[in-house]
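The instructor's notes for this session suggest beginning with a concrete chain rather than abstract definitions. Hand out the sequence below and ask the class to guess, before any prediction is shown, which regions might be ordered.
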Amino acid sequence: MSNDNINVYDAACNAARVAADAAYVALAAAYDARDAADTAYDVACDVRDAADITAACAARAAACADAAFKN
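After discussion, reveal the predicted structure:
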């Protein structure tokens, strides 16, 4: 193999390595974005659940107060 062929081969390998590294970085960023979206969804669900529990407790307290007032 001549030096020119070796240089072309090395350049192609290096370009492929750079492209693979860039793809890996992009994939890692996509996974990070997915994880952030999952976390945001979980937080939103927790907030919703807390609001539901608070509303149920408030309704129960209002019913108890109403019953106490009627007695």
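Then share the key points. The mean pLDDT is 93. The two ends are 102 Å apart (CA to CA).
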